[in-house]
Amino acid sequence: MPPYYAAITGAGIVCPAGHSKAGLAEALRAGHRFHGWVTRFEVPEDGPQFACEVDDYDLSEVLGSKKSRIDPVQSHFLATCRYALEEADLSVGDGPRDDVGVAYATTYGPAQSVEQYSRRLADRGARYANPIMFNNTYINAAPSLAAIEWGLRGPNHTLCAGWVGGVAALDTALRALETQAAEVMLAGASESLSETVYLDLCSRGIVAMGENPGDARDLTGMVPSEGAGALVLEHPEAAEGRGASTLGTLLAAAHESAPDSASAYGAALSRALDGAPEPALYLSPADGIESLATAEHEALRRAGLTHDAVRTVRLADMLGEMMAASAPVAIALALMILDPGETALIGALDDGAGGAVVVTKGDAS
Q: pTM score, two decimals?
């Protein structure tokens, strides 16, 4: 077992399947898919048309207090933090907590707010640009708003590591706990679709094209998605001391970069699996992009793992490619479908980067 691990006492999600972990697990068992037409913005008629979108919701109802306009990427993260903290039964919000920190990641950040502010600035000039909207354009606004909302004055990190960012946030949280920089870490990631994000992905030639969203599973290319996931991580002794229920144990979170994705993913798998129990479940990062699928298979071969040897779930088949948010959402799902004592391996892949997380359901001690 790795030298340090953390208790997972709360987990929250926002995704195209909804806001419920149980609902997500049930959707998986029922074989539901959430691929649909892009509805948030106009896309080129001769380009890709598919996405997995999060249904509209009122953040004020989730938090129990009225909120001014914020970017969806921030709203998704705040909602998942509320769900995770509530499940952990953690006493926050009544006063400052110097021992609780935040580790957060995103690939594109608040792109929608950046788009809107930049367009108004260009069209009407600086005098008429909305200063409130400008506050939403900072990439670290989401974890900062979480710290303000619940009085979290511990370490506050924003990680930019592409699609493996969620793993980087978990790794950072583990290090903060191991070094006693914090007693509790709220760790996660969020993504939101916008016109700029979608067009960027399309320009790279990696988005699936077809005549019907229902065919997306069988097409070459990924289906862009959005959402968030957050975990409450604690020192195992601290969680036990306050009588918290342990949903699972985060045994390892490793992310690597290399000239090729196969080497990066292989290195991350090697670090994460070193000394860890044999996984009963593998959450694959495969999303329809052929180059990444090739890299995954090569890395698994080098690690002595095969899809045939372990139950494999491709989260993107159901929810699309959630980028940095994929890993924390996958962990929440794994904790719902594992049997007590079983271990899951969660993968993350990007061009030249790989990440791997190992979690066990229940207390690993």
A: 0.95
